[in-house]
Amino acid sequence: MRLHPTRATFHVALAGAAVASMGVALRLGTVVAFGGAMILAVAVGRAFALAAVTRLRAAGFEMVWSTTKRVLRVARGETVTFGAELRNRSSDEMRGICVRAIASSMLETTVEPETVDLLPNSRLEVKVSIHAKRVGRWGVHGMALEVRGTPAGGEALYEVPLMFANPFGIEVFPRSLHALVTSPRGGRSRRAAEAGRAAPALGEGDEIRELRDHVPGDPFKRIAWKASARRGRLIVRDMEREERDVVWLVLDASVELWAGPEGRAPLDDMVDEVAALAARHLSRGDRVGLAVLASRPRTWLSPASGAPHAVKIAAALASAASMIDVDRCELDEWEIAQRVSEHARPLDPRGLQDIPKSNLDLLAARAQALRARAPFAPRVPHAPTTREQQLRHYIAAFGIEVPPRVEGEREKTHATMAGALDMIFNDKKARASVLYVFSPAPAPTSEILTALRRLRARRVDVRWSLPPFERAVPAPTDREGAPTRVREVVEEAVWLRAIAARARAEKILRRLGVRPRVTERRIAG
Predict the structure, then answer these.
(1) Which end of the chain has the least Cβ crowding within 10 Å, N or C?
(2) CB 409, CB 256: distance < 8 Å
(3) pLDDT in tens, 443-479
(4) 3-state class (DSSP) for residue 234
(5) What digits encode the pLDDT tens for the residues 389-419?
(6) CA 49 distance to own-chain centroid
(7) Nearest-angstrom CA–CA distance, 402 and 266
(8) Cα 138 to Cα 463: distance, rounded to the nearest angstrom
(9) Cross-strand bridge partners of residue 162
(10) pTM passes above 0.85
(11) What is the C-alpha separation between 467 and 152, in angstroms, rounded?
């Protein structure tokens, strides 16, 4: 437990040292004794503060969330408020300052009030507000405050930071899919998917297309017996089915597309656009498939419809922001182990004191056991060894963010996308009618162009959305006058280069008959 001196403590100690020094210089024993007494008072105050806080924690000073849910689903850009209860079970009064939530940087958190006064054997509820900046699964790891004396004790000499480890999960969905996923289920409220557009296609349906004479090969179940009796010959019913689109959404989730401020990166806008299109087509009754690609296929959902499929799409888009896989993360195994150790220490009953720092196998086993307290149940991350998989699985389960890899995935992602487009072309069960691709434009010699030509030859409506790179930096028109700093010069150069690259990309796509467009911004930064 660490104790930090307050400003008053520092002033008292400094004054005591000055008085003692003056007494030594003047050879006055009483002055030296007075200065030494001031320094001794600071040391005694530290011992009393440590004993008081130790007694406070031992008596049962704790924090619990007021909600019983372990995971809270919110929409990106939304602010949600819930409560947390501080409980003082000791017989001492305490004052806590700088009350704050320990959470991912993808969540903006505020706590009211920031200063709390707890009487003996009392409880106090504080309000925690969380603003979700980016789609994903992020953790609220607990709360922290600093104990400073008592409400009536005046200025305290020491502050003691305390941390309450109580994991809580925030699952951030795109706004459009969040509304669809959280809408009431069952009954007539879920029958909107039946509103498709009727087409002159034979099949099993509810609408009669025509009555005609029976021909060899017609199934007996289609015979209209009453109409046949009236006409004196066999008459069959041709039914009309509703034909709907088979829509594929292909999203490039390479790590370099997350570059930029949280909520304003190119991939933030692309995820929102994919979610909006998925919600729109699902509400029409279309079947929607989703492919999230990077250097490897990250998610592959075959075309389907309905509310359960909307939940799967929302979950897949939430995991698109994850950097925990070894080929997307900048941290190696030892650095991941260090983060696991720091997070697991307050959760472990023994504080990991029985695990040597160099024993990663024992740490991975302990992390595997503690994962039962995690709010999320993600897939097992990609890693070369089982031990590293367990450590990275712990990080993902508690929503601990990790830095993305500095090297990009562009070349590998385009190779993966070419294979994905070939799989969509070769799918005989659900032939695609509309294809949306969200990615930077391929190179003129890329294999993707060959796959696009094959899809266009089959009359698939291909639409390519380019990431809005220029929105991640201020446009030159947003500044007055010429750039004056190095940062402004670099931002203007990046902005101009993004505009030029977009123009070249649109030219390449138009030659293939693909409709290019720039991803819309759905939520302001």
Answers:
(1) N
(2) yes
(3) 777 788 888 889 888 888 888 888 876 555 555 555 5
(4) coil
(5) 999 999 999 999 898 888 888 788 888 999 9
(6) 40
(7) 19
(8) 32
(9) 145
(10) no
(11) 58
**Contact status, residue 460 vs residue 435, Cβ threshold 8 Å:** yes
Q: Specify whether the CB–CB gap between 71 and 376 falls below 8 A.
A: yes
> With 0-12 CB in 10 A as exposed, 13-18 as middle and 19+ as buried, what is 461?
middle
CB atoms near residue 169 (< 10 Å): 20
487 has pLDDT over 80: no
Beta strands in 89-226 (DSSP E): 94-103, 107-112, 116-118, 122-132, 136-147, 158-173, 198-213
Per-residue model confidence as pLDDT tens digits over 72-108? 999 998 999 989 888 888 787 877 788 888 889 899 9
Helix (H, G, I), strand (E, B) or coil at 51: helix
What's the confidence (pLDDT) of residue 199?
A: 42
CA–CA distance, 504 with 305 (Å, rounded to integer): 36
Q: Reduced to 3 states, what is the DSSP secondary structure of residue 169?
A: strand
Q: Cβ-count burial of 298 within 10 angstroms (0-12 exposed, 13-18 middle, 19+ buried)? A: buried
474 upstream amide cis, omega within 30 of 0: no
